[in-house]
Amino acid sequence: MLARPPWGTSRRTVGRRVPGIRKGVTMTSISLARRFAATTALAGASALLGIAFAQAQTASPGTANSGATALQTLVVQGGQGADGVEGIVETDGYVAKSGRTATKTDTPVAETPQSISTVSRKQLDDRKPQNLSEAVSYTPGVRVGQYGAEPRFDAFKVRGVDLTYTGIFRDGLRQISSPNGLFRLEPYGVEAISILRGPAASIYGASSSGGIVDIISKRPTEEQFREVEMQYGSYGRVQGAFDFSGPVDAENTVLYRLTGLARDARSEISAIKDDRLFIAPAMTWQPDEGTKLTLLGEYMDSTTGGTWGYINNYGSGGTSIGATPVYGGDERFNDFDQKQWRIGYELEHALSDNVTLYHKLRYSDLSTRQEWVYANYPGIVMEDNSGLATDTYLKTDFETGALDHQLITGIDYSSMKYTSAQGSGPDLFTDDFAYVPEISYHENQRQNAVGIYVQDQVEYDAWRLTAGLRHDWLDSKYTPGGVQYSRDDSETTGRIGLGYVTPWNVMPYVSYGTSFVANPGVILTTGGVSEQAKPTIGEQYEVGVKYALPDHNALITASVFNIDQENASVYETSSGVNLLRQLDLRSRGFELEASASLDNGLSVIAAYSYNDVKITKLTAETVGNQLNSTPYHTFSLWADYEFQSGTFEGLGLGAGVRYLGSSFGDNQNTPVLDNESRTFVDASLRYDLGKLNPSMDGVRLQVNATNLLDEVKQICTTGFCYFDEGRKVVGSLRYRF
């Protein structure tokens, strides 16, 4: 986790308040703030088609061999508008039923001994989030908005730990990134988002101790599905999108899906664009019941602003004392262009009745060109990265006496390389911006990682045990400014969880897990000797309970946790100068989440989090302080109601509230930078015009608003201050046929 000042610095301008780029990347733990130095100028479905219930045991219905009631597994069949992807992530409305993110097996969420939340396609359709941060904003334990309306990256913490670089996965594979090259997410191309809280290194390797976010892509459906959508909204937003899917042949042997989008828009800062072209083709071949091969592709060309943030006022010692309403950049030199594409496949093949092979592979490529200006000081960053990620494992089902096992044994591999070219200055005071900074600095990096792992899920009557062990090897060659560093890291991680399914559909559980993140692109200098930082390590204890309400489509979960993390690499900047430090922290807290989608048309998601994140090692004056921009209390509630009959049939109403408690704006907990508590209100209104006139069947009109009451306050993070994003309204017209 490499935290750094939002305004950033380049190596050649340490001490100056100008944007730049943080050097080096890991698969690892580069924090939000790090990425912001790299770029900032001033810092930086749901129509349910089929449901089948399967008993967890073969005893009398709903009863385990011991007499305890077993939780039921709800399977949602794929099809037009269906929520989820069969066998990968399955939901009913807002309620998550099962998924592979937590265990790489199709495990019921209510029987998974670790905290996991899922943002379903139904939620995405109702709330219309415009980016990943907005999509997960109603999830417990997730902190978004610490950089205000930051448009360039999806930056957020889970349980007080940054996941921006080390916790984002796509379809179960690591999403390759570099310091200034992070894949942007288009929510329209997503089927669901699963947020696993707590370490998952035992099956995913190098990843954050806070957890992972697994983004599930849209896949082909067996039922024909076609829709087109137009949007118009705040800041001149104009967008068109389409999504077509279905079988190619009568036997459903070959399925296809094609999703696309085009947008022309600005943001609340007129100098910042929000333009995008997106296309995602997919195809599935299933020659028999035991074999499925799915190809997944994507290309996106997007442009946003290269400078984010406002001019800050500074006090004695060069530290910020607050933001001004003056934008720090300049529209004439401000484009942040990014082209990204990926191609990959997923294979499932039954080798026998109880052994199944899973194999997936993805190649990705990304190139960026960022122009930035801060207070008439310009800079440019051009970066390219490419990477390969692959995972292969066997799932074996067997019995040993009264014990039922799901054993997975696997190996995965990932590689990444990137090159970066940068230049900045000198100060400009002219109006034509004819001068473009010359490239004066280069860096590159290569990484390779291999991991082997084993995990066993054991059922004994009403007991549910999950235990896993993994070992990783990672090597890196990092060359900043012509000086090469190399490092080899090796680490063993594990996870164990135990739960008991009571006769009342309540499962109390306990779990323990460890994590590691290598830091091959982080150079520390001690006593005049420079070397790459050692890995960040972490461990978590969690105790919780899950309750699947009988005869209702509802799930309630609660958990308490303790995370201890050591050796995170961060930039401590409150003194006014970029100083690379080692951070240890302790994160403790309590989380409560409820989700429901009922037959009467009411859907609800509610979440509360208490998170106490203390610094246990950084600088003498910060030990014992609360980690900056990390509130103790957060609460969210979203409720959606769709009239099922009568005069208002076809009308849907949604409203949400998000409360963010107070926090500190820097790690010194300086009072002048305190962040006040704030409350945001969101809303949605939609109408199925087919209920009004049958000739308009399939047409839906919808309006969504975020921060409806236009609550805008200063927000400070790592000693630099921004403002919350103001009111945003988007209207959409969708036609399904």
Explain what the structure shows.
It contains 4 helices and 40 strands. With 737 residues, the protein is mainly β. Strand 4 and strand 5 (95-99) form a beta hairpin. The protein starts with 31 loop residues before the first helix and ends with a strand. Keywords: Cell outer membrane, Ion transport, Iron, Iron transport, Membrane, Receptor, Signal, TonB box, Transmembrane, Transmembrane beta strand, Transport.
Comma- or semicolon-separated keywords:
737 residues; mainly beta; Maltoporin, Chain A; 40 strands; globular; disordered N terminus
Kindly provide the name of the CATH class of the domain at 11-46 and 216-594: Mainly Beta
The largest β sheet comes out as:
22 strands, antiparallel, barrel
- What is the CATH H-level superfamily of the domain at 11-46 and 216-594? TonB-dependent receptor, beta-barrel domain
Distance between the termini: 47 Å
Strand composition percent: over 45%
Q: State the helical fraction.
A: under 10%
Determine Rg (CA atoms, Å): 25 Å
Number of helices: 4
